[in-house]
Amino acid sequence: MNGVSADPRLLQGTLDLLVLRALKWGPRHGYDVARWIQQSSDDVLRVEDRALYVALHRMEDRGWIEAEWGSSENNRRARFYELTAKGRRALATRTSWFQRYSEAVFKVLAAAAA
After folding, report:
1. pTM of the predicted protein model
2. Which domains does the chain show, CATH number per domain?
3. What is the pLDDT of residue 12?
């Protein structure tokens, strides 16, 4: 199956949720976040660099994540992003909402004509 690039206009809330989830287990740099999302979706979802960094900066402005400079696994300078307590709460809230939302969408898609 071909990958689907994340369109920031359509997927802003979804992209935020996916990034928060990628950071749940500890700090990651941007490329690693994008790679984790792609691998976790069996190569269906691909996050464009620009969309990812816009999302990371937006979440940093909201206080959901913090960033600091470090070295990547190949010794390149990279910013590492980590969830804050506020970000963990946002992840829980948004996960719950998204589950209800997606269940409702699938109910509509499966509904018989009235």
Report:
1. 0.84
2. 4-110 (1.10.10.10)
3. 65
